[in-house]
Design a protein that fits this description.
single chain; 391 residues; alpha/beta; TIM Barrel; 5-stranded parallel β-sheet; 3-stranded parallel β-sheet; 13 helices; 13 strands; 37% helix; globular; binds flavin mononucleotide
């Protein structure tokens, strides 16, 4: 345990411990503008002792947003984000910015009002109420723009004082859509074979690394499995991890899983608070659809402690680079086991929403297990009053 809570290198960083706060969309950036609540949320986590906190789901481009209130790196956000990085540093922590692009899973129109774009043409159930029921295939210019947007966002993160960026290759967003055989049906150099499906995510990583040099750490969140038949499976996710390792552009991989458009609770497990999520929908029609169809189309998965460990262990064995364990880490015993199994870092989401001081309290011997019971009401709360534990 002491070893988990002592200083550790993550790429160029020296973290005060091996505990990372997972990106959990905060719901604290109305219109995409970072707020004081966002600063205070991360200040509190840093004061509670985490080594690295992560500002969630920042859109690298306006058309890469899933929804309107997702954090954007526009000038109006910058003052608060500078304050946020300073506040975390003052508390002795480090801070990462998660960079994502929604691809086809979006309610947001692109330039000139156009439909969301991703690897291939397809149905965009999430966009129906916003009048965007279909997504289109990206052309070469779109792909170039995506690569440039990730690079520019990473440079901006460095200017704002972030210590790290986390590139989102999982959960069914754009780069995950390119990786998945279920959503990438292209027959050009960006689709087909796994080598082709990996081309865009690897090009993005290369550009991000070129943008931040060796001053910032680069974390990569990937999928172990998409969680539905025909999606990405472990053999390919191991090949992807090997390619990331060979590229030399990432400092740690955080394996996760699930596809927000198809298996959103595969990455969470536990409660499925559909009524509360329906209440939080901004359009009545989305709320009504969630209430009526939700139970039929959204699968529930039983919560188990360290639920990704069996798959993540296989990935751990396949590569030498640092790997972090994420998913259902809720107790001191679970954290110790993660280290014993060779994981370099532990990444906690809901446990730290419930107990922002979890690290300090475990260090003092006051806490063995978080009070989080995986009810997932925090997921519904993000769109109502910002992410918080409702217990
Ligand atoms: C309220 C909430 C919001 C989340 N938002 C994001 C997000 O913005 N980006 C992301 O990669 N994962 C997101 N996740 C998933 C978490 O990062 C993590 O993968 C998941 O909660 C499993 O870890 P845990 O069992 O420690 O909570 C979110 C999870 C929760 C509970």
């Amino acid at each position: 345990m002491d070893e988990l809570f002592s200083r550790a290198a993550l790429g160029p960083l020296r973290l005060r411990n091996r505990v990372i706060k997972a990106a959990t969309y905060e719901g604290m950036s109305r219109g995409g503008i970072a707020s004081r609540a966002l600063v205070d949320f991360h200040r509190r986590l840093a004061a509670g002792g985490v080594g690295l906190t992560t500002v969630a789901y920042c859109a690298v481009a306006d058309e890469g947003r899933t929804f309107e209130h997702q954090l954007r790196l526009v000038p109006e956000s910058c003052t608060m984000l500078r304050e946020l990085t300073r506040a975390v540093h003052d508390e002795g922590g480090a801070v990462s910015l998660q960079l994502g692009h929604a691809g086809t899973f979006s309610k947001v129109r692109g330039p000139n009002g156009r439909a969301p774009r991703g690897p291939s043409f397809g149905w965009n159930a999430y966009g129906v109420a916003a009048g965007l029921p279909f997504a289109r295939a990206m052309d070469e210019q779109d792909v170039d723009r995506v690569i440039a947007s990730f690079g520019d966002a990473a440079s901006r993160a460095a200017e704002l004082g972030f210590d790290a960026v986390e590139v989102h290759l999982g959960h069914g967003y754009l780069l995950s859509q390119f990786l998945s055989p279920a959503t990438n049906r292209r027959d050009d150099r960006w689709g087909g074979s796994l080598e082709n499906r990996m081309r865009l995510p690897l090009a993005v990583l290369e550009r991000v690394r070129a943008s931040v040099g060796r001053d910032l750490a680069v974390l990569v969140k990937t999928n172990l499995r998409d969680g539905f038949p025909g999606g990405l499976e472990l053999d390919e996710s191991i090949a992807i991890a090997r390619a990331i390792e060979a590229s030399g552009h990432a400092d740690v991989i955080i394996p996760s899983g699930g596809f927000t458009s198809r298996t959103p609770f595969f990455l969470l497990r536990g409660g499925l608070p559909l009524d509360r999520m329906a209440d939080a929908q901004p359009e009545w029609i989305s709320g009504a659809a969630m209430r009526v169809l939700g139970r039929a189309i959204i699968d529930r998965y039983e919560f188990e402690e360290s639920f990704f460990l069996p798959l993540a262990r296989e990935l751990r064995r396949a590569v030498r680079m640092p790997i972090a364990l994420l998913g259902g880490l809720v107790s001191r015993e679970g954290l110790v086991k993660a280290r014993d199994e060779g994981f370099d870092f532990v990444v906690l989401g809901r446990a730290l929403i419930a107990d922002p001081e979890l690290v300090l309290r475990m260090q003092r011997g006051e806490l063995e297990r978080t009070r989080c019971n995986a009810c997932n009401l925090c997921v519904a709360e993000t769109d109502i009053a910002g992410v918080r534990c409702v217990l």
